[in-house]
Amino acid sequence: MTASDQYASVRYLVDDVQAAVDFYTTHLGFTVNMSAAPAFADVVRGPLRVLLSGPTSSGARATPEDARSAGRNRIHLVVDDLDAEIARLRDAGLPFRSDLVSGPGGRQVLLADPAGNLVELFQPARRA
């Protein structure tokens, strides 16, 4: 098994690779695994690897024109204190895309990266 097989990878098409790297590393605790900006970079957080593909990357060039906009999919990041994360990210001026939503499994909120890709912050419900 190679090191990259130890990650679950998601590719996000982004308009500005460096802006996306800054967003994920500054605000969400990712680290840069590899960068070939302005075309491509990948960032990791635990077992999650996000491939940030700019307009000139092979990943973006292989994408059909009708599928180039940000979709309804999103990465899901578990946090210990959702209220504290919301306050920290709001103070940083990040764009939230939803209100706080609560359900039987926990609470969540959505924010957007610089290209409009969604990131879900989720705090699981406490189990008795």
The number of domains? 1
Named CATH architecture: Roll
Q: Kindly state the number of beta strands.
A: 8
Helix proportion range: 10-25%
Beta-sheet strand percentage?
35-45%
- Low-pLDDT runs of 5+ residues are none
Order of helices and strands: EHEEEHEHEEE
Query: Gap between N and C termini, in Å?
Result: 39 Å
Instruction: Report mean pLDDT, rounded to a whole number.
Output: 87
Q: How many separate helices?
A: 3
Shape: globular
Please provide a written account of the structure.
20% of the residues lie in helices and 36% in strands. The chain is an alpha/beta fold. It has one domain (6-55, 72-124): Roll (2,3-Dihydroxybiphenyl 1,2-Dioxygenase, domain 1), CATH 3.10.180.10. The strands form two sheets. A four-stranded mixed β-sheet has the order 1-4-3-2. The radius of gyration is 15 Å and the shape is globular. Keywords: Lyase, Metal-binding. It comes from Pseudonocardia hierapolitana. GO terms for molecular function: lyase activity; metal ion binding; methylmalonyl-CoA epimerase activity. Residues 6-124 form the VOC domain.
Question: In brief, what are we looking at here?
Answer:
With 128 residues, the protein is of the alpha/beta class.
